[in-house]
Amino acid sequence: MHADMSFIGLFMQASLLVKAVMLLLLAMSIASWTMIFHRHKVLKKATNSADRFEDRFWSGIDLSKLYQESTARKEQLEGPEKLFHHGFKEYIRLHKTAGKTSETVMEGTYRTMRVTLSREIDELEKSLPTLATIGSISPYIGLFGTVWGIMSAFIALGEVQQATLSMVAPGIAEALIATAMGLFAAIPAVIAYNRFSTKVARLENTYINFMEEFTSILQRQTMTEQGTAQA
């Protein structure tokens, strides 16, 4: 009677520990792909949103009007638009405060945008540490299952007087599946982590550049107002 060498057959013949390893790797793979699809949508949306807002910002629109537009959709803001909204809101608040110098106003505005930037990057980086963990440990979990399965196969082989390849092959095959599943879970996670990390870094650079340019605009506006007031 030949052993069932199909994937399901090998899984059913595997020891309890190897089955547990396979199920764990399957769960990690499913979780990994779920995070990959979700993070892809999030980063694509963030990129498109940043492009749209920067086109709107550099179209020559009045900053006060743009601020009113962002206030109307406050709950949907992200990326540069959120930096602009919080920065301009703080700029207006400090500008109206008596006794505040232009340096104090700009420092407060810049600090507010830095905090917003940090929160936005944290949001973009969600799930990336988990993907990195899955990519790092999955091969080792699979290797553990393989080593255990092969060890069990050789122990069983030692208990018979005449060993044949057909007797040891199923045990080794079911053990090697654990390594294959570990690689199946790890490879997409590592590729996705590297790809998403690059995208987050590009978005962060885009956000920082916008923040610096917007700060320069506010500084010029403040200097112009000061010059007008002195005149």
TrEMBL record:
Keywords per UniProt:
Cell cycle, Cell division, Cell inner membrane, Cell membrane, Membrane, Transmembrane, Transmembrane helix
Q: Which residues form the MotA/TolQ/ExbB proton channel domain?
A: 81-206
Q: How does it sit in the membrane?
A: Multi-pass membrane protein
Source domain of life: Bacteria
Cleavable signal peptide: none
User: Pfam families from the xrefs?
Assistant: MotA_ExbB (PF01618)
| Gene Ontology BP, a term | cell division
Subcellular location as annotated: Cell inner membrane; Cell membrane
Membrane-crossing segments per the record: 16-37, 140-160, 172-193
Cellular component aspect of the GO annotation: plasma membrane
Q: What family is this?
A: Belongs to the ExbB/TolQ family.
Subunit architecture: The Tol-Pal system is composed of five core proteins: the inner membrane proteins TolA, TolQ and TolR, the periplasmic protein TolB and the outer membrane protein Pal. They form a network linking the inner and outer membranes and the peptidoglycan layer.
Q: Which PANTHER family match?
A: PROTEIN TOLQ, TOL-PAL SYSTEM PROTEIN TOLQ
Name of the protein in question: Tol-Pal system protein TolQ
From which source organism is this entry? Motilimonas pumila
